[in-house]
């Protein structure tokens, strides 16, 4: 079963859990979701669902930005021998790159950004605040977006250098802690054949972004 969202439409927990019940009831292999939410791993849904409903099922998520990246890398950097297939893929890229398609990459940090940014500067943030978690989650999506954008340009398997065996939930929790306690968001991007990973540190208290 495939669930597709475009534009600002978001995947909802109740909807996905209902689909998972249908998948199990009808004997489907699994559920694939596609939306503008950017995830680091196709096996991690951007929405938390009851894990009991996913047991024994294949559950995957793809962002439109990741699909567009794969298409661009294949066409521009690897090449396609068949001219008809090359044309079809080029039309898909042209469609996805058009704003009217509703398929986009990362647009902004959300409507909680200004409040959290100012709270970091005044040191009034709390780790458990939903707005802090939302910004931490959007930071992860931003890093994934930057890595995929570089992949489109260079055609190399560029990816965020997340800690081994980490999950999105754990990374967002750690980013929330760092943001609330230190006012800092940090991440690294691994670029093949570069001297070292590209480190990005956003200090909201000093309002400085450092890359190294």
**Structural class of the secondary structure composition?**
alpha/beta
Secondary-structure element pattern, one letter each: EHEHEHHHHEHEEE
Rounded Rg: 19 Å
Uncertain runs with pLDDT below 50, 5 residues or more?
none
Order of strands, main sheet, comes to: 4-5-6-7
Shape: globular
Helical amount: 40-55%
Short note summarizing the structure:
This protein is an alpha/beta fold and 212 residues long. The chain has helices at residues 13-26, 51-54, 64-78, 83-97, 113-122, 130-154, 168-182; strands at 2-4, 30-35, 58-63, 159-160, 184-190, 198-203, 208-211.
Give a description of the structure.
This protein has helices at 13-26, 51-54, 64-78, 83-97, 113-122, 130-154, 168-182; strands spanning 2-4, 30-35, 58-63, 159-160, 184-190, 198-203, 208-211. With 212 residues, it is α/β, with parallel strands linked by helices. The chain is globular, with a radius of gyration of 19 Å. Helix content is 46%, strand content 16%. The relative contact order is 0.11. The strands form two sheets. It has a four-stranded antiparallel beta sheet.
């Amino acid at each position: 079963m495939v669930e597709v969202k475009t534009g600002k439409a978001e995947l909802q927990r109740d909807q996905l859990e209902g689909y998972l019940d249908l998948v199990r009831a009808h004997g489907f292999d699994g559920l694939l979701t596609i939306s503008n939410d950017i995830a680091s791993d196709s096996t991690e849904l951007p929405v938390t669902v009851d894990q009991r409903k996913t047991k024994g099922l294949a559950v995957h998520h793809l962002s439109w930005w990741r699909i567009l990246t794969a298409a661009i890398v294949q066409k521009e950097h690897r090449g396609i021998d068949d001219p008809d297939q090359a044309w079809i893929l080029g039309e898909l890229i042209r469609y996805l790159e058009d704003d009217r398609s509703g398929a986009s990459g990362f647009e902004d940090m959300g409507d909680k950004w200004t409040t959290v940014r100012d709270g970091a500067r005044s040191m009034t943030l709390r780790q458990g605040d939903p707005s802090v978690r939302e910004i931490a989650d959007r930071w992860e999506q931003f890093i994934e977006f930057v890595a995929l954008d570089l992949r489109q340009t260079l055609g190399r398997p560029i990816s965020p250098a997340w800690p081994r065996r980490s999950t999105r939930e754990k990374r967002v929790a750690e980013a929330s802690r760092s943001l609330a306690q230190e006012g800092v968001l940090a991440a690294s991007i691994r670029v093949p054949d570069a001297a070292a990973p590209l480190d990005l540190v956003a200090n909201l208290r000093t309002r400085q972004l450092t890359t190294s």
